[in-house]
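Pinned message: reference record for 4-deoxy-L-threo-5-hexosulose-uronate ketol-isomerase
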Amino acid sequence: MQHMETRYTHSPLDIRHYSTEELRREFLVEKIFTPGQIMLTYTHNDRMIFGGVTPTEEALEVQLSSELGVEYFLERRELGVINIGGPGAITIDGQKEPMKKQDGYYIGKETKQVLFHSDDPANPAKFYLSCVPAHKKYPNVKISIDQVTPMETGEGLTLNERKIYQYIHPNVCESCQLQMGYTILEPGSAWNTMPSHTHERRMEAYVYFDFANEDTKVFHMMGKPDETKHLVVSEEQAVISPSWSIHSGVGTSNYSFIWAMCGENITYTDMDMVAMDDLK
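Predicted structure (C-alpha cells):
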C-alpha cells in the first residue's frame, strides 16, 4: 500500500502566530515507516518527495506517474536511498543489490523500476527515500557507510561531537541537485549544528532515528534566526526545513539523522552562518 500527502510552502510571516499544533501539522511528518507500506510526503519546497519504504513479505515499488505528470516515477527525477533497518535488497531495472543497514544508493533519472525487499519480514529493511527533480541522467551508484570517510566535527565540551557521512555528494557520486548524508552523534553529545545556519538557496529535510532509548526526544529548532520556534520530535519522525529556516536540534540523549538537500547548487558549504548573539 502507498500513501502520499502534500505539504505546501510558507512565508516566514505565515508561521509567526502558529500554535504548536499548527506548526507540527505543517512541518513535522509523524509517520515515516509502516510495515508493508510506502509512506511519502511531497513538499512544494523545491518539490522534494521523501519518506519511508518498509517491505515485509512482498517487494514494494513506488508508483507515481499521473501525480507528477510523467509516465513513470523517475522519468524526470533522481532518487537517494539509505537503509536504516534490517537487511534487505533493491532491484533496479532487473539488477538486485543487497542493502544492509546504513547502505545507500544513488539512482539516476530515467530508471524505469525500483523494487524494495526485506530479507526477514520480522526485521524489515527501512528504506528512507529522498527524490528531487533532475535534468540529466547520472550513473546509479551503491554507497555503503563502510566506503565513506566521515567528517568528524564538534567537541565534547560543547556536547556536539558527531560524524557526518556524505553519501550523495560531489566527493562520492554525481547528482543533479540532490545531496544526502547521515549524521551520528557520539554518546554524551546532544547538539547538532549549533551555531546554526540557513541556506537561502536550498531546502532540507531531516529524519531523526537510532535514539538511545524510548524516552529520548529531540527538540528541533526552526524559524527565522531572530524569531525561532521548536518542534518536539520522536524517533523516526521527519521535519521539513524551508530555505529561510534554521535547522538545529538538541536531544535528551544522542541520536542519528539523515539530511537531504536540494536547490540551486550542490556546494555542501554554501550556508549562511548565524551568530549566537543573533538568535532570538
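Pinned by admin. Summary line: The first helix runs from residue 20 to 27.
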